[in-house]
Amino acid sequence: MVWNQTRQLFSRRSRDSGGEERGPAATVDSGPDGLACLRAGSVCVASGKGGTGKSTVTASLGLPLAQLGPTLILDADLGVANAHILQDLHPDRTLVDVVEGRCDVTEVVASAGENLDLLSGGSGFSKMAGLSAYEMHLVGAGIEKLELLYKHLIVDSAAGLSAQTVSFAAASDLVLLVTTPDVTAMTDAYAFLKVLLRKKPVGEVLLVVNRAYDEEEGLRTAEKLREVSLRFLGRAPRWVATLPEDRAAFRSAQRRQPVLSAEPESDLGLALGCLAERVSAELGRVSPRGLGRGLMRRVSWSKDLG
Question: pLDDT tens digits, residue range 109-142?
Fold first, then answer.
């Protein structure tokens, strides 16, 4: 991506539209060149357990969102990142280099196609799964700098309930919770929602049921999770899509491509296309507050404490 051209594009959009492309309370800041810029609208793709297809969803969201404006995929599965695989990339640098002070975050961004970039979290680095508050602050500061250059920011989060994982979700404008009809996946999705709501009592959580036999199974799964959530948490995620069980996911991964690139006309490809339209519409309704800024607010480090 050409950074100066991107900054100028969003500066013009901000001045010409009067902010109408965002919600009425959208955060507008000065970019690196002093011009007014809108921060990226962020969506965190999350799950309570691994194997639900979270990375498959993330990879295919990137393509259609990039057609609407510059889009950044952030692989927040730090230390065991694999989002680069589905983009057929071999990044030379990752967030590991940023945390260890070897380079600036702008040097880590890799192009994944027209208007689509990737920020890799690094693979094979166990320390990245448990960053200190200071290291999380560094990551947040880097993201805060980058998100002025994009319209959309998609977070491919780690599975599970670690404080680090939940912090990324809580700092995002939207959370897309992915589950499957499997009872263990549903249980873990509920557990993730419970922990997330403790950290962020307000905010929209959207539900995607993946690997469903048919639409009816997807709706049953969504209703079960919603019913339990309403009963015990007083809140429930809003169902937005059912994605079918489809070997297109396996074949696309083997080819190191998103489903929407490898097999767009497959049942899964068509469903992912519909999901992307809904996510785009949801992002158009939020008022972006800044993922990086939100992340920094959620860590306890300060300069005074070092």
Answer: 999 999 999 999 877 677 787 888 888 988 999 9
Considering only CA atoms, which of 62, 79, 32 is closest in space to residue 260? 62
151 secondary structure, DSSP code: S
Tell me the CATH class for 37-297.
alpha beta
Q: What is the pLDDT of residues 71-111, one digit of tens each?
A: 999 999 887 878 999 999 988 888 988 888 899 888 999 99
Neighbours of 6 (CB within 10 A): 20
Residue 137 and residue 118: Cα distance in Å, rounded?
A: 20
Contacts (Cβ under 8 Å, ≥6 apart) of 218: 181, 209, 212, 242, 243
Round to whole Å and give the CA distance between 279 and 64: 10
For the stretch 278-295, pLDDT in tens is 999 999 999 999 999 999
Angstrom distances, CA of residue 92 to CA of 4, 32, 53, 62, 70: 23, 25, 26, 21, 22
Place of tokens 């557990």: 191
| Beta strand ranges found along the chain (DSSP E) | 28-30, 36-38, 41-46, 71-76, 110-113, 116-119, 152-157, 174-179, 204-212, 238-244
Nearest alpha-carbon partner for 23 in 293, 290, 283: 283
State how far the Cα of 213 lies from the Cα of 30, in Å rounded to an integer. 48
Beta bridge partners of 123: 79, 80
Backbone torsion region of residue 141, taken as left when φ is above 0, otherwise alpha when ψ lies between -120 and 50, otherwise beta: alpha
In this structure, the number of other CB atoms found within 10 A of the CB of residue 234 comes to 9
